[in-house]
Amino acid sequence: MTSTEELRPDPASPAGLGPLGWMRWAWRLLTSMRTALILLFLFALASVPGSLYPQRSISPEKVTQYFTDSPELARWLDRLWLFDVFTSPWFAATYLLLFLSLAGCVLPRASVHLRELRRRPPAAPRNLSRLPRHASFAAEGATVESVAAVLRRRRFRTVTGPGWVAAEKGYLRETGNLLFHAALLALLVAVGAGGLYGYRGNVLVVEGNGFANTVAAYDRYIPGAQVSAEALEPFHFTLKDFQASYIATGERRGQPLDFTARLAVSDRPGAPERTHVLKVNEPLDVAGTQTYLLGHGYAPTFKILDGKGQVAFEGPVPCLPVDQVTYTSECVIKAPDAEPDQLGFLVRFLPTALPAADGTWVSVFPGAANPTAQVFAFSGDLGMRSGEPQSVYRLETTHLKPLVMGDKTKPLAVGEKLELPGGAGSIQLTGVREWISLQIAHDPGRLPALLAAILSVVGLVLSLTVRRRRVWVRVGEPGDDGVTTVEVGGLTRTEGGPAFEEEFDRVVTALQSPGAAEAAAREGVRNAH
User: Fold this and answer.
1) CA 64, CA 331: separation in Å to the nearest integer?
2) Could you tell me the residue range of the domain that residue 75 belongs to?
3) Does 412 fall in a domain?
4) Which pLDDT does position 88 carry in this prediction?
């Protein structure tokens, strides 16, 4: 008889994770503590370029100067959003991933911690001598109730059983850990709320001029997604005076000492003006809108007459510093209404001018001790009627005719006039004012972010200083003489070191005699939790 063996197919190979499985794996990876720490490090690292490179939201004039000094490098940096770090897509991606990671990490751990707080300490082991800390002694009148009372006075949670006491404390370690991560989560929420419901902007104000908190008055305005023009606080102010003081002698000559701007502020339309002294890190606060002093410079005033003797320009011209030590500054004047030819000027302002050995002129001090302006004049078509936007700090000289040139040109002192060749007109330096750059910001998440930062520090301190520890006590039956054998064991769930050894010794001392117990309990208050 022939037997046949039934052929069976090979077992199917294990199925893959599938879309849902991959999503679970990605979520577990994202919400792990290791990933949260990595993202926190990346978040801090992503903020570094914001302090290395000038930001458009804070110092747009420095960004402009960067493009002037290194145009090719600046274009590449701009492509990488390094002049707008905190609004860049890669910074927002890191921010959102960190938020999700912390949320997915903190919430489950908080639930576990709440269950742990309700859980009773475990019963005493049979053999306490096997624990890292162990002691035994004979005590008169020792009972489970008296031992539990001593431990409760030392802030232990206690559970009693037949002949034993279990005690535990140090839950604040995990509480602090959760508080730290929850505070970081709250900090991210506060920053996000500030970005949605806040706004900030930059403005340059010359002495004698004012500013009203409207969108049109800003040089650069960055509103949050939920901010409308009507939401701006309706205050206004006038810059009455600005004073910068410098060290006049010694090795530190020229270093700044103080910057003070005196403002006449009106908190709302029709409200009486009040005087406010604006300083660095001492902002003007109007109903939660902060006005910060960022920078300053000189704004020499000029009067320009064209070839027909008419006034083509008159007023202050803000100059940008090109040397932060001497505050040598440069600016541009454009007179498109001059006739018969339009006039353009490159101005080099010297706060304290002195002639150099090679015949050029330099500034030797940032204060305006001898203010002069070196003028380079051009005539022709400025290109302002073409409709293309132009920078007020840049003069395109390709199609202009030079009138006055040369680094050795004698600069104009205040009150002096320079007649342009060919009857093209004249330019006169009529005075010197100063300008200040301001950042005006409204951030509703500012105070919550401060509170979250404080709580994160508190949580970090708790998680680093508090130790989770347990103490068990077994109380034997009293003998004929009333003496009871007491056995104590201790265990710390984290590395306790000498601190736990000292605490354990104090607990043993407190259990040995009622008098010592009271003294040890008072001393233990300082080391609780």
Assistant:
1) 13
2) 24-111
3) yes
4) 85
> If you write DSSP's letter for every residue of 317-378 in order, what string do you get?
---EES-TTT--EEEEEEETT-SSSEEEEEEEEESBEEE-TTS-EEE--SS-SB-EEEEEEE
SS3 255: coil
Which residues in 202-219 are b (16+ Cβ under 10 Å) and which e? bbbbbbeeebebeeebbe
Amino acid present at 455: L
Task: Please write down the long-range contacts of 79-83, taking CB distance under 8 Å and 24 or more positions apart.
Answer: 82/49, 82/53, 83/53, 83/54, 83/55, 83/56
Those residues with Cβ within 8 angstroms of residue 386's Cβ, 6 or more apart along the chain or in another chain: none
At 377, phi and psi to the nearest 5? -105, 145
CB-based contacts of 484, cutoff 8 Å, min separation 6: 138, 139, 140, 141, 142, 143, 475, 476, 477, 478
Phi, psi of 239 (to 5 degrees): -80, 105
- Residue 92's DSSP bridge partners are none
Encoded tokens for 203:
């403005």
Final residue before a domain boundary, out of 456, 487, 502? 456
- CATH number of the domain enclosing 495: 3.30.310
Check: CB of residue 244 under 8 Å from CB of residue 367: yes
Q: What is the pTM of this model?
A: 0.67
Quickly count: other Cβ atoms within 10 Å of residue 62's Cβ.
18
From residue 49, alpha-carbon distances to 88, 146, 261, 419 in Å are 11, 63, 30, 48
Spatial CB neighbours of 453, under 8 Å, sequence gap ≥ 6: 183, 187
The total number of structural domains in the chain stands at: 4
Question: What dihedral do alpha carbons 184, 185, 190, 195 form, nearest 10°?
Answer: 110
**Residue 144 and residue 52 in one domain:** no
| pLDDT block averages, 10 residues each, the chain of length 529 | 48 61 81 81 86 80 81 88 85 84 81 82 88 88 88 90 90 86 86 86 92 91 85 92 90 89 92 92 91 93 92 93 91 91 93 89 92 93 78 84 82 92 91 94 90 92 86 86 85 72 88 56 46
Residue 46, number of CB atoms within 10 A of its CB: 20
Cis peptide leading into residue 340 (ω within 30°) = yes
**CB of 170 closer than 8 Å to CB of 133:** no
Cβ-contact 356, 343 below 8 angstroms? no
Q: For 251, phi and psi rounded to 5 degrees?
A: -65, -25
Parallel, antiparallel or unpaired: strands 469-475 and 320-321: unpaired
